[in-house]
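Q: Given only this backbone (1018 positions), what sequence would you predict?
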């Protein structure tokens, strides 16, 4: 019995020194001396190999292993690397060769195997590498056997592993990305200017930006409507001035009547008179004729006058009649003036009726002026009585004009009706002007029409202006329509005018002292502009109503602008719509507004689609309220409010001369807005981008959510809010948050996370299927649970070793599995000796000879023992072929090659010859043929040979003609059936030369034999 080492117990200095002396052989029994690696290597019991950091690792001496027990290492399989915060855990499948010693782990900063260095070895199936936080490396693994043979790496490409970065570093980087994000900046920015929408996209190309600069805002377009309305009104005013006076000077007509009566004063009977005067000096002829009739209560005077003036080139004709009777006095006049010098013709007919109660005059005239190129027609009727004055007028004027540079034609029509009753005047007018002009460099067609009615201070108008201009710059075609109406509101709630006057005098509100009105208008402008550089079309619509009630004033307005433009480089379509409602009471104003803008642009390198919808409301403000990024420069009054959208809606008050910032929080708190923006950009240089944002603001508090996707593979979802809540409205507690962000912290009630990186976990309870530690696990006690060692797993009294095998457990397959009932399943059992009893073996391979001392019972043996089957040939008549003589099917694949022998006949090959009767002597004739025999395996030829048949016949005079035939059957012989195959074998024959045939029938049969290759007979 060996003596135990005399080592001294204890950890004090004396015990340590004594034990060191024993191990180094300086004292005690020399048999207790420790053996060094160097001594083991010198004795040939071990080998030394360098490890990481210059440390030598002992290994098995391959010379100590019998031959055949040491295999060359194969490449590692399923190499994976998982990074934690500080360490990387490298894992691989167990080696599948004999004589494994250890594995080498190599590492590099890039995926380049040549630059990798050895970082460690492991006899297990995993390796832990401490590389620190935020590091990235590539790993390679190879196996080493006991003979120090180095196997191949798992591949040329390394396995990448990353350790997690410090959480604070990640948060800092995310903050930087948020600060740089165009989406985040959009959400943090104030809501876009509501009355004057503008798209601020920093990445737009200069060309697209140039197009945008050409697009006026909706306020500019509405101001343009004002200008067009002003132009239309000026044209109508000018046309009415050209038409001249629409009324009749009734006093002048009555004066002419009285003058006619005064001319024939005194008592006279009826008489007739005629005068004919010729003046040789001035070449004039004057003719007068008078017919006067008078009887009791009735006087009628008819006078005809005509003058011919050769010097003036003029003919004047006039006929009139004056009648006085009991019904009153009447005058009728017909006058015509023809002027040959200035090529003019003037015709006028007048009828006047005068009584003590009423005056009525009707006048119709026409003027033709070839010098001016004018034709004027006019019909007017006017009545005056105790009820008032009534006037009706219709006038038309045609003008044509040309000069050395231009030509112009114009038609002017006017209709007017007017009734005056006391202080009230009711008036209706229709005016239409049509004009065409052609100049050396421009042609213009223009038409303007206006319908207008007035009743006191109330009025309504319908105006239309159509215009087409073509010049060297291009074509402009436009149409402007406006409908306006204004009604003075009566004080219906007042008892009488006196009380209304008293209330107005005592009123505090200025509106109560002023006349209140209701106003409505619809204005539409359509315009098409074509030039050599651009085509453009636009439509602007403005609908506006106002109502001044006794206690408050309200206003509603809908404005829209639609515009399309296209040139050689780009195309643009834009639509802006704005809906506004105002309520004003005293010095307090409430305003609601909805604005929608849609823009689409495309040029040679970029396409853009954008849509912005904004909803805003302001309560409690005074006077007007502006939402825009720059200070309003027009349309403001003292006390108006401006929210600076470029400074987070900071409020300003207009003092009458300047905008003064106000810090009253109550002002801004009453302003709220919501804005939705959708935008898509496709750029050949910068790629594509799509963005959607929703923003809301109440005073100086804002919130928003946005989405952005870029063609470079990046996308973002950003939320700007002080609090975020996610809840389930269909749960029993719908207001309980499932996910929330409050005070900078995320709160999650329940979560399912596939993968998470957490730097510090503080938990009351952790339930996990697997826990993997890169460095260590420290715990005072492990109760139950599972232990996962990468390539081994323990749980519930069962253990699995070597992943990837056929035995299942915990959702994996294992090469060796020990179940809780003690059953062991393995396909990696290696036993150098032992005793086995009552064992059933399935699919067992015996590598070496086996001595069976008992009886072997076998249902089937596949191997050297042959298999034989009879076959029968198919029936084929005599022919040249090819024919399939027989077919043989191999039914069972095995893991080794076999030999198939076809010893019998496989068809017949033959030919014939005839020797005709000779005249004398003998005659010999011969014939032959060759046939090609092919053996096909699954359609591919694996063996072929040629069969030759010959025949001869001899005849003499006494025998007559002689015919001979000869047939032989080919023997196929052996063919090889490859391992793991169950092919179909076909024997095929066809004639290849000579004159003969091939045939087969069922009388030809044989036996086919198949056996393992390598068998032998003696």
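A: Predicted residues:
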């Amino acid at each position: 019995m060996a003596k135990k080492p005399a080592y001294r117990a204890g950890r004090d200095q004396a015990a340590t020194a004594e034990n060191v002396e024993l191990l180094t052989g300086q004292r005690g029994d020399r048999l207790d001396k420790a053996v060094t690696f160097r001594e083991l290597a010198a004795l040939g019991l071990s080998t030394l190999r360098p490890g990481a950091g210059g440390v030598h690792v002992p290994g098995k001496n391959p010379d100590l292993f019998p031959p055949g027990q040491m295999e060359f290492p194969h490449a590692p399989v399923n190499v994976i690397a998982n990074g934690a915060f500080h360490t990387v855990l490298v894992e691989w499948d167990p080696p599948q060769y004999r004589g494994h010693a250890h594995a080498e782990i190599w590492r590099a900063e890039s995926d380049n195997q040549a630059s990798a260095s050895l970082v460690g070895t492991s006899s297990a199936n995993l390796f832990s590498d401490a590389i620190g936080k935020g590091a990235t490396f590539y790993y390679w693994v190879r196996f080493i056997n006991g003979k120090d043979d180095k196997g191949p790496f798992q591949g040329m490409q390394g396995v990448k592993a990353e350790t997690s970065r410090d959480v604070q570093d990640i948060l800092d980087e995310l903050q930087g990305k948020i600060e740089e994000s165009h989406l985040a900046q959009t959400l943090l920015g104030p809501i876009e200017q509501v009355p004057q929408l503008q798209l601020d996209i920093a990445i737009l190309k200069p060309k697209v930006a140039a197009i945008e600069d050409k697009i006026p805002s909706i306020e500019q377009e509405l101001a343009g409507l004002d200008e067009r309305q002003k132009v239309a009104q000026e044209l109508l005013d000018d046309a009415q001035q050209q038409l001249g006076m629409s009324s009749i000077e009734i006093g002048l007509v009555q004066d002419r009547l009285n003058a006619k009566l005064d001319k024939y004063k005194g008592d006279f009977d009826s008489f007739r008179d005629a005068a004919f005067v010729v003046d040789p000096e001035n070449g004039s002829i004057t003719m007068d004729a008078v017919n006067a009739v008078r009887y009791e209560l009735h006087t009628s005077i008819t006078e005809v006058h005509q003058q011919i003036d050769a010097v003036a080139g003029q003919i004047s004709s006039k006929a009139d009649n004056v009648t006085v009777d009991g019904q009153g006095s009447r005058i009728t006049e017909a006058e015509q003036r023809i002027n040959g010098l200035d090529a003019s013709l003037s015709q006028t007919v007048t009828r006047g009726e005068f009584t003590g109660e009423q005056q009525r005059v009707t006048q119709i005239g026409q003027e033709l002026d070839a010098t001016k190129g004018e034709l004027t027609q006019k019909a007017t009727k006017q009545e005056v009585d105790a009820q008032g004055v009534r006037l009706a007028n219709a006038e038309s004027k045609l003008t044509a004009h040309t000069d050395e540079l231009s030509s112009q034609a114009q038609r002017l029509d006017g209709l007017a009706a007017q009734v005056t009753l006391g202080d009230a005047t009711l008036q209706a007018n229709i005016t239409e002007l049509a004009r065409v002009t052609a100049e050396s460099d421009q042609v213009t067609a223009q038409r303007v029409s206006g319908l207008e009615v007035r009743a006191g201070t109330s009025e309504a108008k319908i105006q239309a202006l159509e215009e087409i201009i073509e010049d060297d710059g291009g074509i402009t075609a436009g149409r402007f329509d406006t409908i306006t109406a204004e009604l003075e509101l009566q004080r219906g709630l007042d008892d009488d005018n006196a009380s209304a006057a008293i209330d107005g005098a005592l009123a505090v509100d200025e509106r109560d002292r002023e006349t209140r009105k209701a106003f409505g208008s619809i204005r539409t402008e359509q315009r098409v502009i074509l030039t050599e550089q651009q085509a453009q079309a636009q439509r602007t619509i403005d609908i506006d109503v106002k109502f001044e009630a006794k206690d408050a004033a309200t206003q509603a307005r809908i404005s829209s602008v639609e515009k399309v433009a296209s040139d050689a480089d780009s195309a643009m379509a834009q639509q802006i719509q704005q809906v506004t409602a105002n309520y004003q009471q005293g010095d307090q104003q409430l305003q609601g507004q909805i604005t929608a803008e849609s823009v689409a642009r495309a040029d040679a390198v970029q396409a853009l689609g954008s849509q912005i919808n904004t909803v805003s409301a302001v309560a409690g403000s005074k006077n007007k309220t502006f939402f825009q990024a720059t200070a309003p420069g027009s349309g403001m009054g003292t006390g108006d409010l401006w929210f600076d959208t470029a400074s987070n809606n900071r409020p300003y008050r207009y003092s009458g001369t300047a905008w003064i910032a106000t810090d009253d929080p109550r002002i801004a708190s009453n302003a709220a807005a919501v804005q939705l923006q959708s935008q898509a950009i496709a750029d050949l240089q910068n790629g594509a981008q799509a963005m959607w944002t929703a923003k809301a603001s109440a005073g100086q508090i804002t919130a928003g959510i946005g989405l952005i996707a870029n063609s470079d593979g990046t996308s973002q979802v950003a939320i700007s809010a002080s609090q975020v809540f996610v809840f389930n409205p269909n749960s029993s507690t719908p207001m309980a948050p499932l996910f929330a962000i409050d005070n900078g912290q995320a709160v999650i009630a329940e979560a399912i996370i596939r993968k998470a990186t957490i730097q510090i976990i503080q938990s009351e309870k952790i339930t996990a299927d697997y826990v993997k530690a890169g460095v260590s696990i420290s715990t005072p006690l492990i109760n139950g649970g599972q232990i996962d060692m990468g390539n081994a797993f323990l749980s519930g009294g069962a253990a699995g070793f070597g992943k990837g095998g056929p035995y299942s457990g915990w959702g994996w397959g294992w090469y060796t599995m020990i179940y809780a009932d003690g059953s062991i399943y393995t396909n990696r059992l290696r036993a150098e000796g032992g005793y086995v009893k009552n064992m059933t073996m399935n699919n067992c391979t015996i590598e070496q000879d086996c001595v069976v001392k008992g009886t072997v019972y076998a249902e089937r043996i596949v191997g050297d023992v042959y298999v034989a089957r009879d076959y029968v040939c198919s029936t084929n008549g005599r022919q040249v072929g090819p024919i399939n003589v027989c077919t043989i099917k191999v039914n069972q694949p095995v893991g080794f090659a076999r030999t198939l022998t076809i010893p019998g006949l496989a068809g017949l090959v033959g030919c014939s010859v005839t020797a005709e009767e000779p005249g004398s002597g003998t005659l010999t004739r011969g014939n032959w043929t060759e046939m090609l025999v092919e053996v096909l395996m699954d359609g591919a030829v694996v063996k072929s040979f040629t069969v030759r048949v010959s025949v001869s016949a001899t005849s003499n005079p006494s025998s007559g003609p002689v015919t001979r035939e000869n047939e032989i059957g080919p023997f196929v012989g052996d063919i090889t059936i490859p391992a793991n195959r169950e092919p179909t074998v076909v024997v095929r024959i066809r004639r290849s030369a000579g004159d003969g045939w091939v045939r087969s029938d069922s009388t030809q049969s044989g036996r086919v034999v198949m056996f393992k290759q390598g068998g032998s007979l003696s």
